[in-house]
Amino acid sequence: MSPKITTELLKQLRQVMKSPKYVQEPVQAYIVPSGDAHQSEYIAPCDCRRAFISGFDGSAGTAIVTEQHAAMWTDGRYFLQAAHQMDNNWTLMKLGLKDTPTQEDWLVSVLPEGSKVGVDPFIIPADQWKRMSKALRSAGHDLVPVKENLIDTIWTDRPQRPCKPLITLDLSYTGVTWRDKIVALRSKMAERKVPWFVVTALDEVAWLFNLRGSDVEYNPVFFAYAVIGMNTIRLFIDGDRMMDPAVREHLQLDSTLEPEFKIQVMPYGSILSELQAVGASLSPKEKVWISDKASYALTEAVPKAYRYLTPYTPICIAKAVKNASETEGMRRAHIKDAVALCELFNWLEKEVPKGTVTEIIAADKAEEFRSQQKDFVELSFATISSTGPNGAIIHYKPVPETNRTLSVNEIYLLDSGAQYRDGTTDVTRTMHFGTPSAYEKECFTYVLKGHIAVSAAIFPNGTKGHLLDSFARSALWDCGLDYLHGTGHGVGSFLNVHEGPCGISYKTFADEPLEAGMIVSDEPGYYEDGSFGIRIENVVLVIPAETKYNFKNRGSLTFEPLTLVPIQTKMIDVNLLTQKECNWVNDYHQKCREVIGAELERQGRHEALQWLIRETEPLIRVQ
Amino acid sequence: MSPKITTELLKQLRQVMKSPKYVQEPVQAYIVPSGDAHQSEYIAPCDCRRAFISGFDGSAGTAIVTEQHAAMWTDGRYFLQAAHQMDNNWTLMKLGLKDTPTQEDWLVSVLPEGSKVGVDPFIIPADQWKRMSKALRSAGHDLVPVKENLIDTIWTDRPQRPCKPLITLDLSYTGVTWRDKIVALRSKMAERKVPWFVVTALDEVAWLFNLRGSDVEYNPVFFAYAVIGMNTIRLFIDGDRMMDPAVREHLQLDSTLEPEFKIQVMPYGSILSELQAVGASLSPKEKVWISDKASYALTEAVPKAYRYLTPYTPICIAKAVKNASETEGMRRAHIKDAVALCELFNWLEKEVPKGTVTEIIAADKAEEFRSQQKDFVELSFATISSTGPNGAIIHYKPVPETNRTLSVNEIYLLDSGAQYRDGTTDVTRTMHFGTPSAYEKECFTYVLKGHIAVSAAIFPNGTKGHLLDSFARSALWDCGLDYLHGTGHGVGSFLNVHEGPCGISYKTFADEPLEAGMIVSDEPGYYEDGSFGIRIENVVLVIPAETKYNFKNRGSLTFEPLTLVPIQTKMIDVNLLTQKECNWVNDYHQKCREVIGAELERQGRHEALQWLIRETEPLIRVQ
After folding, report:
1. Does the structure's ipTM exceed the value 0.85?
2. How many Å apart are CA B9 and CA B18, to the nearest integer?
3. A480 — contact with chain B (CB < 8 Å)?
4. Cβ of A506 under 8 Å from any chain B Cβ?
5. Is B263 helix (H, G, I), strand (E, B) or coil?
6. Domains in chain A: ranges and CATH
């Protein structure tokens, strides 16, 4: 991976930062956030502005360019990748390390007095705007919205915004009709006495209308906004996809409906003016509910006194708690996914010793096996197929320049997943196709102990996920080891593989309490720069737990693994496990054998079945 | 404990809330916070306004009185106590429960439109003012400062503010002179380019000047403020205590000193006008550093543009990391404290079966044994001496109305501590003087497992205490049990028994990372309302941990117990412990036997020594 040469681009950007054609007054710094106008994590090529200007294309990062400096903030998952992809024009700011300045502090330290800092108001979330604006103002600078995106002005071959056909999901997948979702949303609005609600996140629009799209790779969403009133529904969406008869019928666009369920379809680009019109029409005490992470531009469209901002929308919270149809769909998706991975690992075991399998070939093969499964749509994220030192690059994606050949001498880490019509998967397994060293086994076993500690944890109703994060690290901490990423994230149901409002992380973000029906990942790891990476990830469902007692009738919760793929026992130092942990592994493998074994049998995949049976032999503790 | 009858008082308060003599405009609600003008947790009798108006005298709680309602917010430690102490005029608002409204939400729900909510600006912290003011304003109400404290106007026999003699601490106790502390503080001020610093917390004033007082029971502090400039030191303090020759010499008041170390002594009451004068004298870019928890009145004394607010002051952080002299002092204090408790428990074992020992007698006896120890000053908090159902009242203090007799049939919980000139102690032991039931032993053992999980935890440098809280709960959670308080708090060195900025709690407050030298408590519990209470508390020192590996050279930390008092093995169900936990108990008891045994020997306390040897017999796991 050679870095992108950005000298010329930065020169051009610094020119437009001073050009009266684009800015009212020159800006001394320009912020290029990661997201799109919907604050998506995964974005369409036309929105990859930060990657365009810097070369760094990880999923999280913010670039700031001043007249003399260019700096990139990203987190521990991407330290190595960003360092590889960016040239010497850029300074890497490692988030989470003690001495890394915040963007605001850094700006204040480098800017000349009375500077203007520009940003696209459609890209920056309102909460970030507020924080940054306040910090800059108190240091004598100004954060200013720059209407035209300055990256776009220098990006000559910028791709078009995608506008692909939609997929309609019937009740067997969603469990609830879009009409009932609107009814439930309006009841939440009535509870808070807020007559308007703006849907800005793409996965929230998709979930609300039981529609899916493919405008963004890996995330089955489409570019749209919605504004829901107590009696009106406005959907802002472009292209002729609303001409599709299936979509028209699904949304009942041509039926005679009660007016409060009649969807008005409007152009995507008209959201700002329509929202301004709603804002202007409000009577006192009427408010518009909008996420505090919505763009500054949309937030500003509603006068301040009429805004009702919350960190999580009622859709975000409702979407996180999967209903029975969604849970069953997720179970089916994970069974199919496990079948594909059993095939893959069986194949790898035979092929790797020949020295012909590269990281890219392995990733392609994983996709091939997944695509053979029913209702497969696409991958749910770029496959992390990494061997040896590449495994230590936490969100590595193999490209020809870095592509290593799998061997019997190195650890192989595969973090992959897919979108099926019935669910979304995300699973990481770490394998050795030869003989792992004692040290590799030791580290793997600590990671496994952490994985089990979370997966088997029992905790009271109302517990927030961040309270479980240390369970995943305890065994590593005991030996002075750790990993620089969170332990788990919410997973959508045939939706984004990363979703809020819950998660398991040491970062104290405003996570919502875990509830039965929520689905998160459990993925501790250990990474040794330049040597290897280990991660063990299951997707797990929050379920009620039976306990001996029931303090204050609060009830307890625990996790049920949805992912049912063997954890390589060859990598386990069984004598580092407690009997309880050993039993957990054996019970888990027993369930893999039963559930996935039956499906492999049904699909006539006998060789993979033999592999599964071999890989799920019970562990025996010698101690 | 019969509730205080508050009908007449509330009537009087509601009258003054409307009286032009005290308020410019009538206030429809009046807030009575817990603290004093220094936001102290423990307060002098003259500041116990919330207890006066409500009857509830726990250490934490906020009262709000409106024309029709009176409500009290307090946390899980005090639910039972508050319910017992308050009459029917009061509604108890249980903090931490899901359905409990915030003070702001409750006010908005009960107030007529456009109400004024009054509060004493010297008592409410600036951060609380800001949050509450904002919430009230957005609902059309106003938070207004009421200069005269309205409680004081109806409190006819309100005690005088205490003004007791000071204690000077020499270098052997403090490790650092006050001059060197001023130098270090000024270097922190220079780092942040802030030329003024206001010391508002009583323990910070005491720590900075190496002085102690006795104005507040249990906390060896005195009423004072300080304002430190780069070249000036102003100490605001009343009374003739500055006439004491020892104090004058300690502070070098009569020496010819470099001007920047010359202390100007000013009246306590002149802080507001002096601070206003400092604020008015500032040139642009000069700021005044003040805690964001300082009173609204003092914060407002400095114009907004000149305020530099932080959640923790540099004194708070420096004070938390004990130096070698302080650590050695704390060790000595804990050894003496353990001697007193060995005497007490030996005495209780003999006396309880006679049926003559009440909770109050036991508490008094504990104080008697402590007072026999060298450098004993006073208790560090009101002794929680509770048996049977009283043990479930988390911060219970025995009074004649509730005083139970200890017996061989009930669990006895003693949470007590003392101030010695060389250190502050805080220890809880839970004992049974007969035969505990299997259920009591089971619960005790879960609590012990939690205690050990924290005490033995190894974690990376930079870890915040809240990440360790779940370790203390895990064994309880597994059985559906829990406790409704945090796991640990910072402990001062011959200072407040509760101090910031670190702690171990599920509440995500802004705790500072743990550092070697910090001292916290480790005190999980389990409480069964109406039956019993269990808590096991040690004070522990953060120390560097030796680990097998050292990820990114971060270094690791762990805890060393300073408290060395046997944990009653009779209460332990040894078969619920792992071998590792069992070893921890045995190692701990071995250390108690060696260290405290030697001191008991030295003090000639042979009977207590025999008791100690008996109580520290090693556990043996049968499994």
Report:
1. yes
2. 15
3. yes
4. yes
5. strand
6. 6-154 (3.40.350.10), 167-319 (3.40.350.10), 321-616 (3.90.230.10)
